[in-house]
Design brief:
about 350 residues, alpha/beta, eight-stranded mixed beta sheet, seven-stranded mixed beta sheet, 21 strands, binds zinc ion, Metallo-beta-lactamase_dom
Length: about 350
């Protein structure tokens, strides 16, 4: 894939974001006017609900099955589709915390998984990598089923195998120090497990464009703001010992350009800081475009009030129009955004498709 040297991002005509995994569920609250969204209770009932006969007195359109609603889980997985001249490209951004939640939610959403050309992992943390192997198996299975359909001039065969874009610096384990000792996370999938599950591993530490320059994946995110310092007491286990690892330097983001709007930044957990990510997205694209939207985890759930306040003020100063905040953002940050930037907040809920 081409290494990034200057802004080559294709201006996308449309962008849709399906939250396969996110922390929260709320299928009732309407989307704010700054975006279009589907996947709420009424959409599910009328779209996928079961038909009902006259035995209930007639006039019943559909029965909604509660099994069709997605479940929230601590993690993130977004299926992102951009189109340019009616040609779509789909990327899976992270895979949530567990195989079971990813598989169950993807099945409930009847996601067209065969369209996924590339899986991007934002960083090596289990709440983003835990569903990776099941996701790859499900994508491979969907592509095999699709490829076996009768040939048609409209049938564009999906690329196989699926590229899995990963930072090369995978720790054996990650963890953190507590007063009672070290807490370890579960191991992330290994490179060989990912290959065995049907993924084609592509290791990248530097910024690079993917999928015909529909998307740009960053390299390491420079830490330039005073308050965004990574995970306090963070550790990694390597070569038989635990060592300090507060920066989570393997974290990357994805950015794309939506025509007539500007940049849309996807950030997994913002250990580098959501403002640092925003500033780097602007730099990587030569400061040629405004930052229109930020999607993902802002990592402010446990932030000190002063840091939370300064972060929201910085986002306000950047004049970001749409803040699709989910995962580790936390309710206090969302409340502050809604107060300081009325009309910009779109809380990210699992099962919802947001269109920009
Ligand atoms: Zn993380
Ligand atoms: Zn996270």
């Amino acid at each position: 894939m081409p290494q990034h040297s200057t802004t080559m991002l294709v201006p996308l005509d449309t962008l849709s974001i399906l939250a396969i995994v996110d922390n929260e569920t709320d299928p009732m609250s309407p989307a704010p006017p700054c975006v279009k969204a589907t996947g709420r209770l009424g959409d599910i009932a009328l779209g996928k609900g079961r038909p009902v006969g006259d035995e209930r007195g007639g006039g019943v359109v559909k029965e909604v099955a509660m099994e069709q609603l997605c479940c929230g889980a601590h993690g993130l997985s977004l299926m992102i589709t951009g189109t340019c001249n009616n040609i779509p490209q789909t990327l899976l951004f992270d895979t949530g915390p567990t195989d079971s939640i990813w598989t169950a939610n993807a099945a409930r959403l009847a996601s067209p998984l065969h369209n996924i050309s590339l899986v991007h992992l934002s960083h090596w943390h289990r709440d983003h990598s835990g569903g990776m192997l099941s996701a790859l198996h499900a994508i491979a299975s969907a592509k095999a089923s699709y490829s076996s359909l009768p040939a048609s001039i409209d049938l564009v065969q999906p690329p196989t195998p699926t590229i899995v874009d990963l930072h090369p610096s995978r720790p054996s384990y990650r963890g953190f120090t507590t007063p009672l000792g070290i807490v370890s996370l579960e191991a992330d999938p290994t490179f060989s497990e990912i290959e065995d599950a049907g993924g084609k591993v592509d290791k990248n530490a530097e910024a690079h464009e993917v999928l015909d320059s529909y998307f740009l994946i960053s390299g390491e995110i420079p830490r330039v703001t005073p308050g965004e310092n990574g995970i306090r007491a963070g550790l990694r286990f390597e070569n038989g010992e635990w060592v300090s690892d507060e920066l989570i330097a393997d974290e990357r983001f994805v950015v794309c350009h939506v025509k007539d709007k500007g940049l849309v930044l996807f950030t997994g957990c913002s250990h580098a800081g959501v403002v640092n990510a925003a500033l780097h997205a602007l730099t990587l694209t030569s400061n040629a475009l405004p930052l229109y939207a930020i999607v993902g985890g802002y990592h402010l759930a446990d932030a000190e009030p002063a840091h939370l306040h300064s972060t929201v003020q910085a986002l306000k100063a950047l004049d970001v129009k749409v803040l699709i905040a989910g995962h580790c953002t936390g309710w206090r940050a969302k409340f502050e955004i809604e107060k300081e930037m009325p009309g910009c907040l779109v809380p990210s809920f699992v099962g919802i498709t947001t269109m920009l």
